[in-house]
């Protein structure tokens, strides 16, 4: 079916809140290229929002999923467990930087990972409140909607949110929120609203995802760790977007040396198969009773087969080395753009978790979401999928596969440069 025919079906049958505004439909893809239903080629700098760090349909993952389909598709692991689930748990336990010996629970999506991390944190501490950050994004379930730094569009139409969520400032020095100010804000929230005696956890993205790829420094993350320890709160690192090689290391928190109690991960964990994980210190992870965690599909055999294949690809193809190299290439382009274009500023990257900001000019730093929208629209017209994001909607983020071929990368970067020149 063509884009136009599919668009008609979408308008008639897909719920308004779930319908993509994009009228191009994806048909097939390979590594960093994708073709729409009308056969138009697009370069993919969005990677399904950070899901495809090793590229669309990595051959080893496709092969592993096909082999699994021939053996076993489902039992519900609480009815009868299977090898994939426990092997994914073993592998993750060996690579996460959490404190002490790690145990694992698998789920289906990022939001579910956060929901379960909070359940576990409540069980382990006997406390209920949670502190999150401005600009944070954690999902679209009730708890995670309440945790998001932004209300609109996620929580606008759904009535009251759970009242156990409190929010502190995330440090964004470029826009006037220093680390000291963010810490003062956190301490104030603890003192006035959340109360450490009632607060189970602080949930932080080491690099904000949807909030704009702003990085928390090692010193800020260390202070969060100290505050959590002081008050018997758990530190939860949400690595749903920053994990699995996006920042040049397996997980973004590793850049700081800080060990959280719990980590949540999803996205690039299985190259597009729906799976997520909650990984934490064994004592914490074992805090809730039998059959209190999980669900019918959590950690399904096919998703686990994909996750295991992804971890093999990381080992066999030096994905972290490729990630670091891509980060350096992006930084070089960004430095040139910042020099050349008045509207480009605050370029930043942790490996290839990279972004530029569009502002009126470098003196005013006034965020310009309208310019970011022009850049992404220009890119789309010229065959490039590019995403904006951020507290101010003026950040362009780069989430292409780290396995992208050099010529495809340069072709895509030239389209971005032409878009910036057209402003
Ligand atoms: N946490 C972070 C940091 C995310 O970036 C996202 C998704 N963008 C989520 C949680 C929610 O993940 P999902 O969409 O799979 O529910």
TrEMBL record:
Belongs to the class-III pyridoxal-phosphate-dependent aminotransferase family. Pfam families: Aminotran_3 (PF00202). This is 4-aminobutyrate--2-oxoglutarate transaminase. The keyword Transferase applies. The gene is gabT. Its EC number is 2.6.1.19. It comes from the Bacteria. Coiled coil: none annotated. GO terms for molecular function: 4-aminobutyrate:2-oxoglutarate transaminase activity. InterPro entries: 4NH2But_aminotransferase_bac, Aminotrans_3, Aminotrans_3_PPA_site, Class-III_PLP-dep_AT, PyrdxlP-dep_Trfase, PyrdxlP-dep_Trfase_major, PyrdxlP-dep_Trfase_small. Its cofactor is pyridoxal 5'-phosphate. Keywords: Aminotransferase, Pyridoxal phosphate, Transferase. The keyword Transferase applies.
């Amino acid at each position: 079916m063509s884009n136009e025919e599919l668009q008609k079906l979408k308008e008639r049958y897909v719920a308004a809140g779930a319908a993509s505004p994009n009228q191009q439909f994806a048909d097939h893809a390979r590594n960093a290229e994708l073709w729409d239903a009308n056969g138009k080629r697009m370069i993919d700098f969005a990677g399904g929002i950070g899901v495809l760090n090793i590229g669309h349909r990595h051959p080893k993952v496709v092969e592993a999923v096909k082999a699994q389909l021939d053996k076993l598709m489902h039992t519900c692991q609480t009815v009868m467990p299977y090898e994939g689930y426990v092997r994914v748990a073993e592998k993750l336990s060996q690579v996460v930087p959490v404190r002490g010996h790690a145990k694992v629970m698998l789920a289906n999506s990022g939001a579910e990972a956060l929901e379960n991390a909070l359940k576990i944190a409540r069980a382990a501490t006997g406390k209920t409140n949670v502190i999150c950050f401005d600009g944070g994004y954690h999902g679209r379930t009730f708890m995670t909607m309440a945790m998001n730094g932004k209300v609109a569009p996620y929580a606008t139409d759904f009535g009251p949110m759970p009242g156990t969520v409190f929010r502190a400032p995330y440090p964004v020095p470029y826009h006037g929120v220093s680390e000291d100010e963010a810490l003062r804000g956190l301490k104030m929230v603890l003192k006035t609203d959340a109360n450490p005696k009632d607060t189970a956890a602080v949930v932080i993205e080491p690099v904000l995802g949807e909030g704009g790829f702003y990085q928390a420094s090692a010193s800020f993350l260390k202070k969060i760790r100290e505050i959590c320890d002081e008050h018997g709160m758990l530190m939860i690192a949400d690595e749903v977007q920053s994990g699995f090689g996006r920042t040049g290391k397996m997980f973004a928190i590793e850049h700081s040396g800080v060990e959280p109690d719990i980590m949540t991960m999803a996205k690039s964990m299985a190259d597009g198969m729906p799976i997520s994980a909650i990984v934490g210190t064994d004592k914490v992870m074992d805090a809730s009773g039998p059959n209190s965690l999980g669900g019918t599909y959590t950690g399904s055999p096919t998703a686990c087969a994909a996750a295991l294949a992804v971890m093999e690809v990381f080992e066999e193809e030096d994905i972290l080395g490729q990630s670091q190299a891509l980060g350096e290439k992006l930084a070089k382009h960004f430095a040139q753009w910042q020099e050349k274009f008045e509207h480009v500023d605050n370029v930043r990257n942790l490996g290839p978790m990279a972004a530029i900001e569009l502002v009126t000019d470098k003196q005013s730093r006034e965020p310009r979401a309208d310019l970011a929208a022009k850049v992404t629209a220009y890119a789309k017209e010229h065959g490039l999928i590019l995403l904006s994001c951020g507290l101010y909607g003026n950040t362009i983020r780069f989430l292409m596969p780290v396995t992208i071929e050099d010529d495809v990368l340069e072709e895509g970067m030239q389209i971005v440069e032409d878009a910036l020149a057209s402003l």
